Amino acid sequence: MDRREFLGWVGVGAIASSLPVAIAACSRQNAKTDSSSDSARADGFAPVGTITDLDRQGQILNKEFDRGSILVIRNPSDPKNVNAVNPTCTHAGCTVSWDSDQKLFACPCHGSQFAPDGKVVQGPAEEPLTAYEAKLEGNIILAKKM
């Protein structure tokens, strides 16, 4: 066996030994999509947090939520309900926070303000925050994309 033939066999061996890894990485079992979330229920709702945490913190910010970042607040006009939005400002991508005194979501980067339902109150943002459908079941806050 000459050098060229030996190197050819080494290359074939390297490719063959990496094939199982490539197959495992591409398998459906490891793929995560919005519809295959382990925490989502059959009706599409997934738990975000608890009312206890919301009342203690004034807001719940979950950047690891199954359907993207989510910010949950008590609805200022109906405290028995909650509002949930994606906290990413539609102007420059900064994370908004809840200003409980003004009852607005405020962007720290360029001053955009959003109503509790995500609608633009003051620019420079022109598009509303993405809203989630949110509901309470006992002490648990549930949300899903609208």
The H-and-E topology, N to C, reads as HEHEEEEEEEEE
| Strand coverage percent | 25-35%
CATH architecture of the largest domain: 3-layer Sandwich
Any idea of the CATH topology of the largest domain? Rieske Iron-sulfur Protein
Superfamily at the CATH H level of the largest domain? Rieske [2Fe-2S] iron-sulphur domain
Q: Characterize the biggest β-sheet.
A: 6 strands, antiparallel
Distance between the termini: 66 Å
Give average pLDDT, whole number. 81
CATH top level of the largest domain is: Mainly Beta
The largest beta-sheet arranges its strands as: 1-10-9-4-3-2
Organism: Hydrococcus rivularis NIES-593
Protein name: Cytochrome B6
GO cellular component, one term: membrane
InterPro entries: Rieske_2Fe-2S (IPR017941), Rieske_2Fe-2S_sf (IPR036922), Rieske_Fe-S_prot (IPR014349), Rieske_Fe-S_prot_C (IPR005805)
